[in-house]
Amino acid sequence: MNAKMMIFSSTLVWGLFASVASAGWFGLFGDDEVKIAVKDLPPAVVQAVQRVFPQGEMKRAEKEEKDKRVSYEIKVVSGEFLYSMETKADGTLLMVEREKRLKKDDDDGKEIKPADLPESVRAAAAKTFPNGKIKEADCKTKSGRTVYEVEVKDNGVEQIVSVSAEGIVLGVTKGEDEDNHKD
Questions:
Q1: How many CB atoms lie within 10 A of CB 61?
Q2: Count of domains forming the chain
Q3: What is the mean pLDDT of each run of 10 residues along the chain (183 residues)?
């Protein structure tokens, strides 16, 4: 009985040691993420969020230090969606990703109403086709980058404008000519 207790005790001690080591000690050498209050974000980070989501509401924030580099991850609600946005401390945008639709409906969650597009995306589409009207849009993640495919009807012709979350036009594809116009 004594030998069984010793084996049990040593197994328990080693198990506790392994749990503490993996949870705490490894954190000293790797990533260090800390939840912070939104009000404590640096002004440059807040401005970056407001550029991409002028009508958005910042919900949560985390500060991450990795290899002596500081970045921030912010959860933003804009329209019907929750977005995750990552920036450097100086406000340089690293990533924007739509996480989920907050209001459930019948679609697959990828189609976006024109009014729910980030302002940077709407502005890029309007600059590309000043006389066009946005009909619909989709949001896709390609290679870890969020890309909006915005369908614009311009002079009877459907155009698809691919725009990054930062408002950079990545490409334009001509759709079908609905009114049979020759351009």
A1: 22
A2: 3
A3: 59 52 46 86 93 88 90 89 90 85 54 86 92 88 76 88 88 62 40
